[in-house]
Amino acid sequence: MTEEKQPEPAAKYFARFGTFILTGPRTANPETLYTRIGEAIKADNRVVNVALPKLNKHWISTDVYFPGSVDDPEVLLQGSDAMRGIQYPRPFVFELSVPIKNQPKIYGRSASSDHYYVAWDGCIAVILWDAAGAEKPSGAAGQILIEVLETAAESLDLDLYVQACSPGCELKFAHRAMLVETIQGEGPRPRSRSTRPTS
Length: 199
Fold this sequence. Notes:
Helix content: 10-25%
Distance between the termini: 43 Å
Radius of gyration: 19 Å
Structural class: alpha+beta
Order of helices and strands: EHEEHEEEEHEEE
Largest sheet: 10 strands, antiparallel
């Protein structure tokens, strides 16, 4: 039996995900905030093509989160470092368009793309960008998203808790990136594999 040949991908993207939790006071109403968050994201001149899906209020999740590390032992005993996080059932979907020179560097290296596709539900974000023939994703690619989310949160008197792998790591996303391939029409499912980013 001969193996069926995989069709050539129509497009290739790199993707990575990270934990970026929108936190606020217990008095904040997640349902009311939904539209305001979308408007705050849209107001950023780095953001284009914002999609705000219809909200199902019954599936909004509000949970208590704690930071990965604390300096004061009393904080652990009192639980005063608790954060109230908001996660929506459908993500805010938008694109970022930022010149590479205006994006943060990671370990001295620059991003490799000036355009990104983003989905963020208030807790988890996934970001994609054109692989453009590169074998490995740049570690700095997509890091500009954190600044955009922080700006939106600050405009609403909320906070953004960024959960990196460790307090001193500059790469705020998960270290494992993905290669996403799209295939036109019907046929075998696209191949998928993960890849480590370059520093």
